[in-house]
Every structure is written in C-alpha cells, then in structure tokens.
Amino acid sequence: MDPADLNLVKMALSAQGKKIHLHEAQLTTICSRVKELTERHTELQSSVATQVNHLAAQLHLVITCLEDLAPPKPATPASNQSATPPALPSVSLRPVRLSPAGEVFLRF
After folding, report:
1. Kind and range of the H or E element at 89?
2. Per-residue pLDDT tens for 30-61?
3. Please, are residues 56 and 96 in contact by the beta-carbon 8 Å criterion?
4. Which residue of 40, 44, 50, 79 has the fewest CB atoms within a 10 Å radius of its CB?
5. Which of 7, 99, 96, 88 lies closest to 107, judged by CA?
6. How many angstroms separate the first and last alpha carbons of the chain?
7. Which helix H or strand E contains 84, and what residues bound it?
8. Are 98 and 104 in contact (CB under 8 A)?
C-alpha cells in the first residue's frame, strides 16, 4: 500500500472518530433533555390533576350551598303533578384522575 494512501486512510478514520464522538455527545445531551422534559411533564400533570380536583371540590361546595339556599318546593296537588317536569338528578362530583396520556376521567 502506498504511504500516501495510508495517511489518507488514517485521516479518514480520525475524521470519522471525531464525528462519532460528536454524535455521542449530542445523543447524551438529547437523552438528558428528554429525561428532564419527562420529569417536568410528570410534575405538570400532577399539578393539573391537583388543580382540577381542587376546582371539583370548590364546585361541589358551591352546588351544596346553592341547594341549601334554594327555597323549598311548594306542595302541588296530585292533579298537577303530571304537568310538572321531573326534577333533574343530583350530581355528585368526585376527584378526577389523569391518565398517563393526559386524558381526564370523571368519576360520578
């Protein structure tokens, strides 16, 4: 093999080694950033779930207060009962759970 060709091969291998080292450093940085992003996403998801549960509890308190403040229903004669629309069912609010995919599941 010609010594000039040998030097070209060494230079090419050295250049490839430098590129591989650079790519390894970039992949390490990317992996680190993805890990940080995952941790921040988990924290955000937990925070959102806490806030939604807090809002659900506050809404439940408001509904309870409104029900307590509502005037009692007047007694109606039996003949008029069919004309009265049926009462809406009461809603019981419970905490929500966020799935790992960020979906909200309401439990009634």
Report:
1. none
2. 999 999 999 999 999 999 999 999 999 999 98
3. yes
4. 79
5. 96
6. 81
7. none
8. yes
Task: Determine the Cα–Cα distance for residues 105 and 107; give it in Å rounded to an integer.
Answer: 6
84: Cβ contacts below 8 Å, ≥ 6 apart: 76
pLDDT higher than threshold 50 for residue 70:
yes
| Residue type (1 letter), 17 | G
| Residue with tokens 């941790």, as numbered in its chain | 39
Percent of the chain with pLDDT over 70: 68
Location of structure tokens 């509890």: 57
Q: Are 107 and 97 in contact (CB under 8 A)?
A: yes
Backbone angles phi, psi at 10, to 5 degrees: -60, -40
Q: Which stretch, 19-23, 59-63, 94-98, has highest mean pLDDT? A: 19-23
CB 43 within 8 A of CB 91: no
